[in-house]
Design goal:
With 178 residues, the chain is an alpha+beta fold. The chain has helices at residues 29-37, 54-70, 78-86, 92-99, 120-128, 145-151, 156-161, 164-174, and strands at 7-10, 17-24, 44-46, 108-114, 132-133.
């Protein structure tokens, strides 16, 4: 029997769970994108190209959740706020171009918020995606480090004194402060 590796965390200051899973060999990203745009799925589906570490997604999701609770979201839904929160800048459209899914994308990171441990939102996403839910954490196979460093404006000097994850998370966290 195959073990599916879903990662879940408690959302900061909440009883909700954050669930993250990697989908590979996706054949229907156009349909999924259409469903997301119509708000027919309670999920963020992220292009993994600029995702270096799962912690990057956890920080962005918690930031989005807190913005939702405080009524200060920059986007229309909690799930679009996750996409926006991954970006180091305040340009919503840029966040969707860089992190949102495009037609033909074959690898997706699924992100849901759940109020129960049986994860109904993630199950609904899994049911709709024509692809494989990864059996282990293979997120590192899909990122592009030079593109990540360029997008997050991380120079080689910084990369030498700080971890790439720390540099990315710092930019995500400080976006609304500066």
């Amino acid at each position: 029997m195959e073990t599916i590796e879903l990662h879940s965390w408690r959302v900061l200051n909440s009883q909700s769970y954050l669930v993250i899973g990697l989908f590979k060999n996706v054949k229907n990203s156009k349909k999924i994108r259409t469903m997301l745009m119509a708000s027919n799925l309670k999920a963020s589906l992220v292009n993994p190209h600029l995702i270096y570490d799962e912690f990057q997604v956890v920080v962005a999701a918690n930031k989005a959740y807190q913005a939702s609770r405080e009524g200060v979201m920059k986007t229309k839904t909690l799930y679009s706020e996750v996409i926006y929160s991954l970006s180091p800048n305040s340009q919503i459209s840029d966040a969707f171009v860089k992190f949102g899914i495009q037609d033909g994308l074959t690898t997706l990171v699924g992100v849901t918020f759940e109020d129960s441990e049986d994860f109904p939102n993630f199950s609904a996403v899994k049911k709709e995606i024509d692809g494989e839910l990864s059996t282990d954490n293979q997120l590192g196979q899909f990122h592009n480090i030079p593109a990540i460093m360029k997008y997050y404006d991380i120079g080689p000097e910084e990369f030498e004194i700080s971890s790439l994850t720390d540099s990315i998370v710092t930019r995500i966290s400080k976006k609304d402060v500066v």
